[in-house]
Write a structure and sequence with these properties.
Number of domains of chain A: 1
Helix content of chain A: over 70%
Distance between the termini of chain A: 50 Å
Low-confidence stretches of chain A: none
Largest interface: A-B, 54 and 54 residues
CATH superfamily of chain A: Tetracycline Repressor, domain 2
Radius of gyration of chain A: 17 Å
Shape of chain A: elongated
Order of helices and strands of chain A: HHHHHHHHH
Structural class of chain A: mainly alpha
Number of helices of chain A: 9
Oligomer: homodimer
Strand content of chain A: under 5%
CATH topology of chain A: Tetracycline Repressor, domain 2
C-alpha cells in the first residue's frame, strides 16, 4: 500500500474513532463514517474487507493504545497524584469537546459487547491494558489487583456521570476520594 | 385513557426500556420498538406526541425510579454490606441477561447526553436520585458528598467493565475495595 493508501486508511479510522466515541456503534453509520473521513466510497472494503466491524475494531484498538499511553504519561510515584492528573486530562478533553468525548471505548462497549464477539474482544483488551498500566504503579500492595480494577472503574464511572451531567464535578469528587483512599 | 390505552402505553415503554438499555439510543429504532412492544403502529404518537425522544425520556425516568428503589431495598446500616448487595443484584441481572442489561441509563447517556437536552435532563436526574439514595446512608460523614458520588461512579464503572469483559470480576473487585475503603 502506498502513502496515499495509508492516508485514506488513516482518515477512515480517525473518522470512525470520533463517531463511535460520540454516538456509539449504532450512531456511527458507515455512510457517515465515509462522509466524515472524506475517503472515496470504494476504499472502505479495499482497506477493511470486514467492513464496519473491522473498522470499529481497529478504532477501538488505536484508542486503547492512546489511553494506555496517556495513563503512562501522567504517572508519577504518587498514585493519588497520577489518578488526579488522569481525571484532569479526561476532564479537559471532555469539556473541550462539549461533553462528547469521554472514554473512547465505553459507548461501543455498552452498545455491542454482549453480542459482537470481535468488538467485545477489542474492548476487553483495551480495558485490561489500562488496568495493567494502573496496576504497575501499585506493585507491592497486597490489594493491587482489586485496587487497579477499582481505580479504572472509578475513572470510567466518573467519566460516564460527567457526560450525563455535563459537569466536571463527578471527576473532582472521585479524585478527592481516591486521594483519601490511597 | 382507558385500560387498553394504559396497557398499550405500558408496552411501548417496556419495549423502549429493554431496547435502549441493550443497544442505546441509536440501536433502538422506533420501528423495532413498535414491533417488540406489539402495540399498534398508530398508537405511538397518540401516547407520545413527542415521538421517540418522549418515549426514551419516559423509559429513562421509569428505569431511574426502579434503580432508586433497588438501592433502597438493599440498604442496611452497613454501607459496605449495602454496596456489596447492590453490586450482587446488578451482577445477577447482568449475567442472567447474557451481559446485555447493566445500567439502564448509561447506554443512552453516552449516546446522546451531549446533544439531546431533554434526554440529558432525565439521565442526570436519574443519576442524581441514585446518588441521593446512596448519600442518605452516609449522613454524618464529612465526606458524604464525595463518597456518594464515588460509590455511584464505582458501581457504574464496574457495570461497564463487567459488560465489556463479560465477567463479574470487576463487580467483585470493586465490592472488596469499597469494603476496605469504608
Amino acid at each position: 500500500m502506498g502513502a496515499k493508501g495509508d492516508e485514506t486508511r488513516g482518515k477512515l479510522i480517525e473518522a470512525t474513532r470520533t463517531l463511535v466515541e460520540e454516538q456509539g456503534y449504532f450512531g456511527a453509520g458507515l455512510n457517515r463514517i465515509i462522509e466524515t473521513s472524506g475517503a472515496p466510497r470504494g476504499s472502505v472494503y479495499f482497506h477493511f474487507p470486514g467492513g464496519k466491524d473491522e473498522l470499529v475494531a481497529e478504532a477501538i484498538r488505536q484508542s486503547g493504545r492512546d489511553i494506555a499511553a496517556l495513563i503512562d504519561s501522567v504517572a508519577t510515584d504518587d498514585t493519588a497524584d497520577s489518578a488526579t492528573a488522569l481525571l484532569n486530562a479526561f476532564g479537559d478533553r471532555l469539556e473541550a469537546s462539549g461533553w462528547r468525548s469521554g472514554c473512547p471505548v465505553a459507548t461501543v462497549a455498552l452498545d455491542v459487547a454482549a453480542v459482537n464477539d470481535s468488538i467485545q474482544t477489542e474492548c476487553a483488551a483495551a480495558y485490561t491494558a489500562w488496568e495493567q498500566a494502573l496496576r504497575i504503579r501499585l506493585a507491592g500492595r497486597p490489594d493491587a489487583d482489586d485496587l487497579a480494577a477499582s481505580l479504572l472503574a472509578m475513572v470510567e464511572g466518573a467519566l460516564l456521570l460527567a457526560r450525563a451531567k455535563r459537569s466536571r464535578e463527578p471527576l473532582e469528587r472521585v479524585a478527592r476520594t481516591i486521594r483519601a483512599m490511597i
